Amino acid sequence: MNLRTLLGERLQAALRDAGAADAPPIVGPATRPEFGDYQANGALAAAKRLGMKPRDLAAQVVEAADLSGIAARSEVTGPGFISLTIDDDFLSEALADGRLEPAGNGERVVVDYSHPNLAKEMQVHHLRSTIIGDAVARVLDALGYDVLRQNHVGDWGTGFGRLVAHLNDIGEDSEALGDLERFYTEASERFANDAAFADRARQVVVDLQGGDPATLERWQRYIDISMSHCQAVYDRLGVGLNPEHVRGESAYNDDLDGIVEDLQAKGLLSESDGALCAFLPEFKGKDGKIVPIIVRKSDGGYLYHSTDLAAVRYRTGTLRAKRVLYVVDARQSLHFKQLFALAKRAAYDAGASLEHHPFGMMLGNDGRPFKTREGSGTRLLDFLDEATVRARRLVEAKNPELDAKEMDRVARAVGIGAVKYADLSKNRTGDYVFDWDAMMSFEGNTAPYLQYAYARIQSLFQRGQVDAAALTGKPTIRAAEEHALALQIARFQETLEQVATTVMPHHLCTYLYDLAAAFMRFYERCPVLDSEFRDDRLLLCRHTAATLSRGLNLLGIETVDRM
RNA sequence: GCGCCCGUAGCUCAACUGGACAGAGCAUCGGCCUUCUAAGCCGGCGGUUGAAGGUUCGAGUCCUUCCGGGCGCGCCA
Questions:
Q1: Is it the case that residue A288 has pLDDT exceeding 80?
Q2: Domain ranges of chain A
Q3: Phi, psi angles (nearest 5°) of residue A495
Q4: Do A404-554 and A111-154+248-356 have the same topology in CATH?
Q5: Rounded to a whole number, what is the largest CA-CA distance in chain A?
Q6: DSSP secondary structure, A193-256, as one string
Q7: How many Å apart are CA A319 and CA A90, to the nearest integer?
Q8: Is this complex scored with an ipTM above 0.90?
Q9: Of the candidates A429, A417, A332, A487, which has an alpha carbon nearest to the alpha carbon of residue A131?
Q10: Measured distance CA(A161)–CA(A6) in Å, rounded
Q11: Interatomic distance A380 CA / B63 C1' (Å)
Q12: Containing H/E element for A261?
């Protein structure tokens, strides 16, 4: 149940009755506790247009609005705000219901994320796309959208010539394939220093593009190995990607000639220095000249523009997506603007919404692009190892009585969770500073704080020998802390919808932090197990735990019963 | 040169897309553990939101100019 939408509808009706038919009610959380739970600001703007005094209009709306059973109090405050306090019984019922509304209504959405380059192992800079995309996909799933994950891996291009040539030389069962970083470096060094090898590598590219079966087989072998490295990272990270979601650049090879023919037929291409380009006037570069979109190189080869066009057509056509979300590095902004503009001209978008949701870089403390310690490189697997090791050190210090198996699980949940949360909790489309020490201090708005809140509740159940699943019914709400906690739980739906609309998971992080904080305050001031209101408070605890767990899960973060 | 993004407390970040007195955490100072996990709670200190104009009943948010930082601008992706 989306409380905010519900209030909006009721106030909208009252505004209409007051003569402000198309005025939005503008409902949001109250900015200060003395203004209740929600506030509506729409009367101010509407009054201006109607030539009324804002307070008079607001009073009319308050009078006319049907908020019975929803708001315990509604009043005009300040220059013409409407302050709303939600009814305790209403909150109690909302809690007992606890279901998510399928607001997505089965609408099909493609989420394009992760897309590592298979020439190398996954790097730290693949982290953001992978975990932001994963969280977005999970939230959309939970809201009843029909989500199709697409991993547009970089599995094609001239770079694979030297890799396959190297593979040919050292044998496909070589141990060197266990370390793709080194394999890649070796191949690159040979390409630079060994003319004969470089020639063979170039021939491999020709063979690949020509579809030579033996070469393709070797290429596939390399891709399979590289993908298995990626899958290991995905499994370690706990993101929901698997081979079914992979549709890489190579999958569109057969479409590219047709794309070019079609674009030509539509009069969108012209030749320039031997390359086929689209010149769209809105893309002015230096000297006022148009920055071209090169769809075919002068040597006849294709570039990522062409592949991406084919992917757009596939996603909106074959997959019939209504929305395609690209969770990709901000540096690709121009590329996507051009891609979307050309796709629209060619009618490949099929009326779907094509959206680039950019993000910045991970920076180190020094403000430069993040590196793991000692300059040991930026391999994502190493990075995740470090996160788990650091988490284990802290958990061991705090709770040494956990057995080895549980310690493993907690270290993983806390380490990986902290890394993900540090990233997901930031709104910035720009860069953000990643700091091991700050993140691992486990204070404030961090995953461990949320996990700790959850663990405290589980501990409470255990101590009281409570079967949480057996707790049912509607809790009676009495204390202010109980009201605040129940209200926050009731806001889950509107928060998820906000994430779905904005494609910004940090709203969910802020929500969960506020929820955990509301619980901590409740927990400090409202004894549970020894209370005469034990059952009511246990119900609040149960719903808090369920919402924390569900919310963290949507961020791809695990919970633990003890930590 | 042109374009995009960013600039909020000493530091790291919010501010629900134009609403009330800009909020958290860290750091710092102080209070709370014989009672449900102190990885917690409560309080103090800390701001001319880079600068100057403009629009508006109302601007961190929108517009203009400037300053500072990042990124991108034809055959890599």
A1: no
A2: 3-86, 111-154+248-356, 159-242, 404-554
A3: -65, -45
A4: no
A5: 86
A6: H-HHHHHHHHHHHHHHHHT-HHHHHHHHHHHHHHHHHHHHHHHHHT----GGGB--GGGGGGGH
A7: 41
A8: yes
A9: A417
A10: 59
A11: 43
A12: helix A256-265
Q: How far is the CA of A428 from the C1' of B59 (A)?
A: 21
Residues 103-162 of A with CB under 7 A from strand B: 117, 154, 157-159
A341 touches strand B (CB under 7 A): no
pLDDT, position A105: 96
Written as one letter, the residue type at A454 is Y
List pLDDT tens digits, range A73-88.
Answer: 999 999 999 999 999 9
Under CATH, which number does the domain A3-86 receive?
3.30.1360.70
> What pLDDT, in 10s, does the model give residues A492-543?
999 999 999 999 999 999 999 999 999 999 999 999 999 999 999 999 999 9
**CA A93 – CA A216 distance, rounded (Å):** 61
In this predicted structure, what is the pLDDT of residue A377?
A: 65
Q: Which amino acid is at A140?
A: L
**pLDDT, mean of residues A288-301:** 91
Three-state secondary-structure class, residue A287: helix
Considering the domain A111-154+248-356, what is its CATH architecture? 3-Layer(aba) Sandwich (3.40)
Evaluate the CA torsion angle A199, A204, A205, A210 in order and state its sign.
positive
Is the CB of A35 less than 7 A from some atom of nucleic acid strand B? yes
Structural element, H or E, at residue A433:
strand A432-433
Fold classification of A404-554 is Isoleucyl-tRNA Synthetase; Domain 1 (1.10.730)
Confidence (pLDDT) at A407: 94
Cβ contact A452 with chain B strand, < 7 A:
yes
